[in-house]
Amino acid sequence: MPRYSEERRQAVVAKLLPPHNLTAQEVAEQEGISVATIYKWRKEARAEGRCLPAASDQGTEGWSSRDKFAAVVETAAMNAEEVAEYCRRRGLYPEQLQRWRHDCEQAASLSHDERRREADALKEQRKRNRELERELKRKNEALAETAALLTLSKKAKAIWGDEDE
User: Fold this and answer.
1) How far apart (Å, rounded) are the C-alpha atoms in residues 156 and 165?
2) pTM for this one?
């Protein structure tokens, strides 16, 4: 099994990015390296924090939420010119970055609102549960009382006989 230098690995992984945007299969065929090795290197590069799409053949749709967030963070302090250059290198449009940033901002507030809604729903569920338990207890007591009266009625008929006769 050949051991590849770090420079070679970086060069191969770079082919997955713009301007090349090659698929892992295409890179493997060009370089004579197994597809599994390409996927492994891509996974390692992503673990190091590099923005690599999950699937090169899907364009920006292959970017995971984590990669999109990383791109937003990387470009947060950049001016418009630097963002444009960043986008050219990554094969993105500035509008995509803006949409991703908006989505990231919304995710935090949605998450908070969603948690609050879930807490309110849970509170309502517990309240409803207590009401149902009280109703069930009341009905069980009524049923027990009815069963006791029925049993006493049958015993009374057995002891004194039926009055209707």
Assistant:
1) 15
2) 0.40
